[in-house]
Each structure stands twice: as C-alpha cells, then as structure tokens.
Amino acid sequence: MSLIKKLIQLNLILITIVSPLLSSYVDANSSQKSDAELREERLGLYLKAEAITLIPWYYIAAVDQYERNIQQVRKDIPKSTGLSSIYFSSSFWHGELNPAEEDSSLDSIRFFNGHGQDGDGDGNASVRNDEDILYTMAHYLESYGQTEDDFKIALWDYYRNDKAVNQVLAIAQTYQHFRSIDLTKKAFPLPLFHDYTYRSTWGDRRGWGGRRIHEGTDIFASYGVPVRSTAYGVIEVMGWNKYGGWRVGIRDIHNNYHYYAHLSGFNKEVKEGMVVEPGVVLGYVGSSGYGKPGTSGKFPPHLHYGVYKFNGRTEWAYDPYPSLRAWERYERKQKKRG
Ligand SMILES: [Zn+2]
C-alpha cells in the first residue's frame, strides 16, 4: 500500500472517530447551528406550546420573533441565549412582591401571583428554559381567548404600545399566511432587466420636499417600471400622501417598515391588509407627490425607497442603500446560475 493511500485511510478513520464528537459539540452550542436549523427547532417548540394551550403556533412565534427583533437594537434588554428570545421581567415571572429573584418553584410563584409556568413538566418554572418560556407566553395569551381580537387585547395589556401590537400582529399574519417561519428571501424593488440608476444619497439635503434630510434611496427609472416588495410582510398603508404621492408601506417580520413612494399607480390585485412576499408587484414608477391627490410631474420619475426600524419604543430611518446593493448582487448571481 502506498504511503498516500495509508494516509487517506488513516484520515477516514480519524474522521469517523471525531465526527460524532463534533456533532455533539455542535448540539451543545446553539451558536454553531445554522439559522435554518435554529428555525426548525424553534418551530418544534412553538408547535408543542400550541398543542398544550390551543393558542395558534404563529401567535407564539410572532411574539418570540418580535422580542428577537427588539433585542438586536436595544441595549437595555438582555440578549437571550436560548432558542426563544422572549424576555420576562422578574415581576411578571416571579410575582411583584416575590423576594426570591431566581424563584422557579411553582408554588411560590403562584403564591406571589407570578406568571411563570412549567412547560417541560420537570416541576419547575425556569425563566431560562425555552419550553417554560414559550408555555408561559402561550398560557398568558390563552387567558384572553384564542381569536385574533383576543390576541390583540392580550398584546396590548402586555406591551401597552399600539405600534408593538401592530408589529407583532403583522409577523403573526405573515407566518400564518405562509405556514412557515422560514421566510428569508429578499428582492430588489425593480426587475433587474429594466434600466435604472441609484446611488448612496443617505443624509443628502432633499432636492424637493423641504428641509428634512433625505431618508432613503432614490432609484431613477422610466414611468411604468414595476415596483416590487423587497420583503415578506403586511401592506399597512396604500394610498395618497401629500409628500410621497401614491405610496405603499409594508411591515415585515423583522420590525422594518418599507416605504415605496411617488408611484404612478398601484397593482390592482394588491390591497391594504394583504400579506405579500418578495417580488410581488405593488405599483409602478412615477413622479407623484408634493401636492393634492393626483399631483405629479414635479420631478423626474423615480422610486423613493425608505426603511424604518421599530425598537419597541420608537421608529427611525436607516440607510437602505447597502441592502439594495446586496439584493441586486444576489439576484444577478441567481440569474447567472439559471
Ligand atoms: Zn427620495
């Protein structure tokens, strides 16, 4: 046997010995798992919480995703280390007057009117156990009932913020519509085969429309070029706005509000309240805006695309230019592959 063959064999033996160790290491450390694997495990937990409470899995999933979104942009909330991102205050979980901050005893949590529940059946309500966390949220929601209106009231009592309720609901409707939480696809807002130009203009003074800085990217193209949704989400507004003209606003599952302005008209198939996926045509490039309904032609046709992030308290604009470049590159690559 040649030396090379021997080395290859030795290698194979090593791989078979080491790989089970590697995979158990991967299991023990969730940060080593792919996002798709994490989503699959999460879905399993949501379905389990649904099975024991009759609260639809997409309501539980939506609260979890909302909390994950705000943790990514807030410094005052601890970042979760488990599969679920729902963060409970100590007073909610353990009870307002409970002196024991690490209390996981069901009896004393109940005594102090805490909401912590035991989801995995080990007799404890641990604020760090994914199944206990998700069951606690599902159990709280269940105490209001199972309809969408009940869900809204439960959310309002929990967050005391209309925008938060609206955002969680948009996530829930999107999950429910696609029967999935695996919604990662994105799209460039214009079909790539049309002629268009855009550049980074974040913070530039507006050429039109007053003194505010320019919050978005202008993509110049001809009248009538289709404008498509970039993300999965719910159409929150659709109609006339004095500045944006015919415009559409879509709330996605990552606490982003996508704003498409100055359209010449809408896709007649698309309505306010509808759930859409990336690539769905919303309307067409135009030059509407800066006047009474129907005013247009005050500037060259273009799509104004803006993105706003909600952190649970406020919403602010951030520069969509890097994302636009990334989506454009990605679609080009996909097209080449065929
Ligand atoms: Zn603009």
From TrEMBL:
It comes from the Bacteria. One of its GO terms (molecular function) is hydrolase activity. CDD domains: M23_peptidase. Residues 213-311 form the M23ase beta-sheet core domain. Pfam families: Peptidase_M23. Keywords: Hydrolase, Signal. InterPro entries: Cell_wall_metabolism_enzyme, Dup_hybrid_motif, M23ase_b-sheet_dom. PANTHER family: L-ALA--D-GLU ENDOPEPTIDASE (PTHR21666:SF289), PEPTIDASE-RELATED (PTHR21666). This is Murein DD-endopeptidase MepM/ murein hydrolase activator NlpD. It comes from Caldalkalibacillus horti.
